[in-house]
Structures are given as C-alpha cells and as structure tokens.
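Morning, I've got a small favour to ask if you have a moment. I've been staring at a protein lately and its backbone has me curious. You're getting the sequence in one-letter code plus the fold written as tokens. I've dropped the whole record in just underneath, so have a look:
=====
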Amino acid sequence: MSSAESSFLASIKPSTPAGAAEPALLSEIDASTRAPVFFFLCCGLFWLLLGTAFALVASIKLHNPGFLGQAEWLTFGNIRTAHLTSVIYGWATNAAFAVAFWIMARLCRTKLRHVGVLGIAAFFWNLGVAIGIGGILRGDSTSIEWLEIPAYASPLLFCAYALVGVWAVVAFRFRAPGHVYVSQWYILAALFWFPWLYSIAQIMLIFAPARGAVQPLVNWWFAHNVLGLWFTPIGVASIYYFMPKVLGKPIHSYYLSALGFWSLALFYNWAGVHHLIGGPEPAWVISAGVVASLLMVIPVVTTGINHHLTMIGSFSRLKDSPTLRFMVFGGMSYTLVSLIGSAMAVRSFNEITHFTHFTVAHAHHGLYAFFTMVMFGAIYYMMPRLTGREWPSATLISVHFWACAVGITIYVVGLSLGGLIQGWEMIATTTDPQTHEVALRFPLFIDIVRDMIPYMVSRSVAGILITIGHLAFAAHFAWMLLQPRVAAGAQPARLSPDSAAPRTPAYE
C-alpha cells in the first residue's frame, strides 16, 4: 500500500485520534483549498452562464411562443427544465461546495487533505450534471420537479457527492482544538441532509416508485427541503462567517444562533407538504405541513434579528464592502422569502397563490435573491485571499450588484403581483342580482393568459438585467485570474474594500 493510500485511510479511520492536529497558518489553509475551490467556482460559473441563457430563452417564450420555435430541443419544457437543472445542480451546488470547503477549512484551522481525490470527485459531479442536462434537452427528463435529471445520470451524481461531502467531515474530525463555530453547525448538517434527501427521493420516485398519493408527498418533501436543508444552511453559514469577518466584530448572540439552527432542523423537514393543500392527501399530513410552515417563523425571525443586531452601527460599511452588500441583500431576502413562505401555508392565501406565477417568483426569491447573492458576496471575499490579487474594477462590482439586485427585484415583484391577479381571476365569483346566489365566474383561460403578458415581459426585462450582471461578474472573475499575482511580501493595491476591513484574530 502506498503512503498516499495509507494517509487517506488513516484520515477516515474512526480509531484515528481527533482533535490532535496543530493549527495551520491561513496561508497554508488557503493554499490547500485553492485548486478544488477554483475548480468548483469555474464549473459553477460555466453552469450559471449556461443556465442564464436557458432562462432568458424560456422567459421570452412565455410572451413570444414562436421564439426559436424551429428547434425541437429548444421547446419551453426542455429549456426551462435545463435552466433549473443548470442552476440547482450546476451553479448553486458547485458554489455551495466551494464556499463550504473554504469556510470549514478555515474554521477547523486545518489544511484540506487529499485534494487530488476531491478534484476527481468534483469532475465526475460536473460530468453527471452535463450528462443530465444533455439528456433533458434530448427529451429524457423525468418530469419530476427539481429531480428532472434522467435516471442514467443520477448514480454518477450520488457517488460523486459521496466523495465530495466526506471531505468536510474529515476536515472537521481532524480540526485543531478549539471552539466549534455556528457556521460549522450549518455546513455539517447540510452535508448530511443532502444525501439523505437525494437518495430517498431517487429510490421512491425513480428506481422503485411509490404509488398513488405518496409520489407528490415525496416530490414536495424533496423539492422544498433541497432549498431549506441544503442551500439555506450553506447560505446562513456564509452570512454568519463573512459578516463578522468584514465588520471585525463577533455575531450578536450565540444563543440566538443556536435557537435558529435547531428550530430550522426541527420544523423545515415538514414544511414542504403545504404545497399540496387541496390535494388528495391525508388531512393530518397537510395540517402538519401547515403548522411546521408557520413555526418556521421562529428560526427566520431569530436569524434575522441576530444578523440585524450584528449590523447595527456598521451600515456605513455597505458603501465600501461588496461582500457585505451582497450578504445584507441576501440576508434580508432570506427573512422576507421565508415569511412569505409561511404565509403561503395559510389555506385562504394558498387558494389564491397556488398554481400561479406567484410560486415561481417565490422559488426564485429564495434560490437567487437569498442564496445566489450570498454566494456572490462570499466569492468576492474569498478570491483575493486565494489568488493573492485584488479585484481589478470597482465599477464591474457595482454593475454586477445593481444589475442583479434590481433585476431580481423586478422579477419577484412583477411575478408576485401577476400571480396574485392570476389567482384572483381563476377563483373569481359573481352574485346573481335577482337570486343573490354566489357562483364561480370562469373567465376564458386565454383571457387570463393575455392578462399575464405584461408580467411576462417584466420577467424578460429582469432576465436581461440579471444577464448583464452575470456577464460583468464572469468578465471580472476571468480578469482577476489572468492578471499578474502579487509577489510574496508585497502589499497589493486595495481595490477591494474588504481587504481594508478590520481583521479578526488569525485563526478565527
């Protein structure tokens, strides 16, 4: 057995003593994470740009159905599904891996081990995503929301994740002695929750499908929890790590963060079932989902208060810190989208919003306005420390932030308003003036579709703005990688305001 194999087996062997590692220097930690983080971020950026192109085409088709209508593989069903898969499993998951590994290595004060094997696993993850999207475009989608990747690509994704996810666990096990931080709770929990969700959903919906009413239950349990128990913990962990780092002060309350974590773990698992209100499901299951969704106010408000009280007295830093700007926007979006989600579990409100564009706006509000904006902020902080270079252009950072922030705001507000109007029209009632009997008024479906055209146009306008932001970010990212690296010992030009932020102790 080679020394590399012996080292690898020792690192995952349960009997190997934990907590005996010596703290590594930040420069050593960053050097060990550089290659895998770059690989994840470059792959994620590729999928983000591809998914953005798919999204723009799909949006235009909603108010101009003949757009690119000659190509069979560019139908709305294929393009929108490819967009969702590119963003969820391509961009968002790659970004989550990169940020989670970097934060975990820094908080554990240990170098990332066996990065070569991790790189191979990362390659096969992205190969699985590519095969899945190719299968979707050729018509092999499973038609199961958030799980559309064809069955022949799913095992590759699961095996790749098994190799990727274990690295953060290994880093935590062999961390240097010291405090366990809030961000570590969320990251470790997310790394355990995702394979549990994905494996059960694949078995019960794809490989050994459950029958009847169990299928939608499993589908919504998976789709809702991927956002709430995979992306949300990574996003919240990032805010808890980067906000104090930039501000140079600790998070407001350790106890509030503990309450937020455990209430999220307890309540979110049930919450997705409220999307099946009115469906052929047991009443107690729907009621449990409604109660859990309303109880989600506890972790959301707790986390929001903790973040806000941490920011008090430091809001002026938003002007000069791109990381803080993205983090605060994402944190505020997390609070708002979660409270809206709880409101959607109220039966009277759900009656209006269900099966409308409101739910589409809600999904993008969570995955983009919260999670993606937080990942952008994390990348702005990480890259100068990984490359030894500063961001070349403050203008491109501003273009990126404002184009994406304004774009997603137009998207969410426009589709939410359109969805409410759409819902009211679909359940509208009329009263007979003579008999005073109340009856449903059924407008022609095509009339409702026509009423939604202005909101679909606003969606495309928002998509164009977001595309501009993504192109600015991609160009800036490439520019940063291609510029000369600062020589060892030299002081880099501080074009990125975060580099001048008050520094916390070296090992925190």
